[in-house]
Amino acid sequence: QVQLVESGGGLVQAGGSLRLSCAASGRTFSVYAMGWFRQAPGKEREFVGEILWSGTGTYYADSVKGRFTISRENAKNTVLLQMNSLIPEDTAVYYCAGRLRGHSAYDYWGQGTQVTVSS
């Protein structure tokens, strides 16, 4: 099992920045990739981006490309989501998730952290 705990959410004005953290523990050696998702009220969960656990590749949704950056702090088994130039449409609960090698779906999920962007 892998446990994931997000932190760093909060309230920010449009144009501002926030950094979310996802701390992973447990059988992290089995993780192939870590992703970030978000879900706004009344909407379906949306893929934000992903980083390979090795740190060698990142992928982003078009809606956040150029504004959000995913990175990994290897020594701390932590994945970061740096969010810049935030807009009200970025308001959502943000979740980190982990998937195993060979799996297309995500296997482990954090509890989520609220991000609210005011206009």
What does this structure look like?
The protein is mostly beta strands and 119 residues long. Helix content is 0%, strand content 56%. It is built from no helices and eleven strands. Strands 2, 4, 5, 6, 9, 10 and 11 form a seven-stranded mixed sheet that branches. Strands 1-3-8-7 form a four-stranded antiparallel sheet, with no helix packed on it. The radius of gyration is 13 Å and the shape is globular. The mean pLDDT is 95.
Beta-strand residue fraction: over 45%
Query: Total strand count, please?
Result: 11
Backbone structural class = mainly beta
What is the assembly state of the chains in this entry? Answer: single chain
* Percent in helix: under 10%
- Outline the low-pLDDT stretches: none
How far the N terminus sits from the C terminus, by CA atoms, comes to 40 Å
Mean pLDDT equals 95
Helix and strand succession? EEEEEEEEEEE
- Most strands sheet: 7 strands, mixed
How many DSSP helices? 0
What sort of overall outline do the alpha carbons produce when their principal axes are compared?
A: globular
Using the CA coordinates, give the radius of gyration.
13 Å
